[in-house]
Amino acid sequence: MDFTLNADQIALQDSVRKFAEAELPSLAKEVEATGMPPSHDLVKRYGEMGFLGVNLPSELGGLGLSHLDAVLVLEEAAKISPAIAFPIFESCFGPTLALAHFAPDELRQRIVPQVCAGEMIVAVSMSEPNAGTALTDLTTRAEVKGDKVIVNGTKRWCSGAGHADAYVVYCRMSDDPGAKGIGAVLVEGDASGISFGKPEIHMGFRGIPSADIFFDNVEVPAANIVVPAGGFKKLMEAFDLERCGNTTMCVAIAQSALDYVLEYVQERQQFGKPVSDFQAVQLHLAEMRMQVDAARLLLYRAVVNASQGLPSVADSSVAKCFANEMVRTVTGKAMQLMGGYGYSTEYPMEQKMRDAWGWGIAGGTIDIQKVNIAAAMVGRRFSQR
After folding, report:
1. 39: helix, coil or strand?
2. Of the spans 141-150, 307-316, 371-380, which averages the highest pLDDT?
3. Nearest Cα to 79, choosing from 38, 33, 25, 30?
């Protein structure tokens, strides 16, 4: 299998890199300092440049390119800052994919082109106070009444809460137990009866807003049903691609850490010579390079095997799990190579390390990915009950 980028992909990667390096660093510093998400103006600009619909169908306003192309775009933006790249992550790897693949045509045509144009931000609302890893225990309910759907419940750890324009809300839509009763509904952020908890303050992920969402008799049109009860499997198939977006964020953070520390050790001198001349430093650099390259290849395998469809649970979980562990190791080594400077907030490494840890929690923890991998190996799912 050839993972060599073609001429068009190299040109795409180069153009995004030049834009990101020239335009995004000052915005990223502002986002990190204030904790506020990227402005709608930046999201609109992403849309104008095609970044928000790289792998979405052209008939829905996207570019109609491959998932690998979307990975290339996301990585270059995320090297500058995961938060500044998050709108690209949400549109190319998040809930918009579920809409594009599984929503009724009227809903797809109404929402997806707006996302691609940067005119609308759509976030996902999955977890609940008592339903995180055990997602099929969710209790948020969507009751269909004629041409309306009434939503009641509480969601937790919602990235984009209070900032997004609409939410793909996982709900219990029938009395069938477990996954059989789960579907999803699109709820606009300004709907009557929706409210938001106080913004969460995390160790990292500054500029990626997160909060509880409360639904109190929120009424939306029945046309906003993304998938009905029984559609949980489809939702999780789309989530397999979200894992690849998570993996891309890890690869980007690790690559940026490696790039930074590689330059640092060649400039920093001790005992009259660059610290890169010491064999111990060379060994760390080599180990970091090997891990970053391995993670990127696992990511490429997952998205290339999926083509323009959706990746397998096994490929996406292997890639995510490896990258989640890799980015923690690589940023830790980079901080150690920088010594006290790496630990200082005057330098970027401490932020990279803080952000690195979050991706092994978000989108399914590292250990849950290992359970998924083992299940794929033996050909059956394991009950955790």
Report:
1. coil
2. 141-150
3. 25
For residue 385, being part of any structural domain is answered with no
Verify that 13 and 112 share a domain, yes or no.
Answer: yes
Distance CA 10, CA 16 (A): 10
Q: Which residue among 205, 230, 255 closes a domain? A: 230
What is the span of the domain harbouring residue 12?
Answer: 7-116
Ramachandran sector of residue 140 (left: φ over 0; alpha: ψ -120 to 50; beta: rest): beta
Q: Give the model confidence (pLDDT) of 194-216 as tens digits.
A: 999 999 999 999 999 999 999 99
SS3 186: strand
Residues 217 and 268 in one domain: no
**Whether the predicted pLDDT of 1 surpasses 90:** no
DSSP secondary-structure letter at 37?
Answer: P
Verify that 162 and 64 share a domain, yes or no. Answer: no
350: its two tokens: 């401490």
Q: E strands along the chain, which residues?
A: 122-125, 141-145, 148-159, 166-172, 182-188, 194-196, 210-221, 225-227, 269-270, 273-274
Contacts of 214 (CB under 8 A, 6+ apart): 154, 155, 194, 195, 196, 197
User: What is the C-alpha separation between 127 and 51, in angstroms, rounded?
Assistant: 28
* Residue 241 lies inside a defined structural domain of this protein: yes
Domain assignment present for 105: yes
Least confident of 58-72, 232-246, 288-302, 318-332: 232-246
Tokens for 121, please give them: 């931000």
Cα torsion for 104, 381, 362, 69, to the nearest 10°? -60
Q: Strand, helix or coil at 82?
A: helix
pLDDT level of residue 308 (50, 70, 90 thresholds): low
Q: Which residues make Cβ contacts (< 8 Å) with residue 148, sequence separation at least 6?
A: 219, 220, 221, 222
Distances in whole angstroms, Cα of residue 203 to Cα of each of 34, 260, 308, 357, 360: 14, 22, 35, 9, 13
User: CB neighbours of 233 closer than 8 A, spacing ≥ 6?
Assistant: 179
